[in-house]
User: Which sequence fits this backbone?
């Protein structure tokens, strides 16, 4: 299994930006899909965005399309989630997740991932 560590969360005003990072270790190859999920208090964990192991395919929830961008740096074994135009409803704990496979697609479902990080808090408030 991969070990995943998220960073970059914090408090930001509405309309602001944050960049989350997910650093992966414990696997010598880059053949893994990465997904970002979030969970707000009292709500189910929901998919935000994912990127395939090939890097050629990304997917995003409708609620973040046009505002969030996922990318990966293979040399650093790190996946980023750039979040712009943040809204109060984006407040949640953000988790990255991974599954080892060689793929040109990814699916934003929890069942598609089997390694999880501890999460990083994002709070959007004035």
Assistant:
């Amino acid at each position: 299994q991969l070990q995943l560590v998220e960073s970059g969360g914090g408090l930001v005003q509405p309309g602001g930006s944050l960049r989350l990072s997910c650093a992966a270790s414990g696997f010598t190859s880059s053949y893994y899909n990465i997904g970002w999920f979030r969970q707000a208090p009292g709500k189910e964990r929901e998919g935000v965005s994912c990127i395939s192991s090939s890097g050629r395919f990304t997917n995003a929830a409708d609620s973040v399309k046009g505002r969030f961008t996922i990318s990966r740096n293979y040399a650093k074994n790190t996946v980023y989630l750039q979040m712009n135009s943040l809204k109060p409803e984006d407040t949640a704990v953000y988790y990255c997740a991974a599954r080892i496979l060689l793929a040109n697609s990814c699916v934003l479902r929890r069942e598609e991932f089997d390694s999880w990080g501890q999460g990083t808090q994002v709070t959007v408030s004035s």
User: Anything to note?
Assistant: The mean pLDDT is 95.
